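REQUEST FORM: STRUCTURE PREDICTION
Request ID: SP-0412
Submitted by: Lab K.M.
Chain count: 1
Length (residues): 424
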Amino acid sequence: MLDLKFIRENPDVVRRAIEQKRGTLNLDQLLSADQKALEGKKRLQSLQEEKNSNAKKVPKASPEERLSLIERGRQIGAEISGLEPLVNAAEEEVRRLLWLAPMIPAEDVPIGKDDSENVERKRNGELPRFDFSSLDHVALCSLNDWAEFERITKVSGSRMLALKNELALYEFALLQFALDFLSKKGSKVITVPSLVRESALFGTGHFPAGRDQVYHLPEDDLYLSGTGEVPVNALHGDEILALNQLSLRYAAFSPCFRREAGSAGKDVRGLMRVHQFNKVEQFVFCENSPEESARWHQELLKTAEEIVEALELPYRVIEVCTGDMGLGKYRMHDIECWVPSEQKYRETHSCSSLHDWQARRTNLRYRDREDRVKFVHTLNNTAIATPRILIPLIENHQNSDGSISIPQAVRPFFGGRDRIGGKT
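STATUS: Completed
RESULT:
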């Protein structure tokens, strides 16, 4: 959400951001509703002042004047009663449209219409060279009895997953590795619910757009969250934090749920784009400072890179263009890991700065050094999302006998094991 005063004073800037981010906000409609609300409130204030002044004159007025003043009081009251619903409607329209206002992207963010115009910023790691006929992750899971891809559809429908045996244990080792890694970086480890209220999804910007991606439990009026970002962002909503509480850094674990509407037949094989998964999310609340926010963006991105490097995976860093970054993002980078069977990089991490866009939606503020109340800045990035990260891990670390090697950094969380699977 943007400051309404900023929108009034910078309509061309906002209009350009709407166009660059392919937003749906009708800015003229918002400005028109805002003008109606401002004029209506001004008129209401004038009428109320006249009504009060008129009422004060009644006791001292002559009988003839009193009748006239009383009649005028009735006329003013009727005009107020007729105007109030119109002002309320205009204010409600302003609130509804403000949810659609995009964050103004950083000036140096790539301008583009979709992911085809994202910009590669870095590559790291050597691509694997196999001296045997390599397999994809689905074949390796089948060979080692690591997953139920077909039977589970009888239980839960399509694009659901049941990991088995060693791979199920490997998943938990990876999650524990990520939580330990972030804890040593100073993050507060927290496990958060997957069930959230509608207001939490408005707070992150997943609503009002994106409802088709979220599972709803109508009897309880709760929703299944697609990322730990949602409950963590709402955790301190409506609070005013002390300066010494910032920066506040979380490592949040939660099961996540996404309908993945609109992706039928696209990237859905095996462990890709399943409806339920587990995730450790990095999240930061920091001071309202572009410099501080930029520092934390680099820190979160660096931490994710360190995790991927510890997992011994080749990867690249992508700077996301305006048309692919989402309404609330000020800046966004993706990390993509190499998938040998596809001969391409696949997104595994997404790092975003949102400045005060989310904090305005959740009304989360702090007192600065001059005791002024300001909205915080928020940032987030993936640490580990399973099973997606298992795809490059299985494929890049496979051996000729069908086993896969376990990265050195994960072994302490996996009983010291150095490999799993393989033909017996």
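NOTES: The chain has twelve helices and 18 strands.
Reviewed by: T.R.
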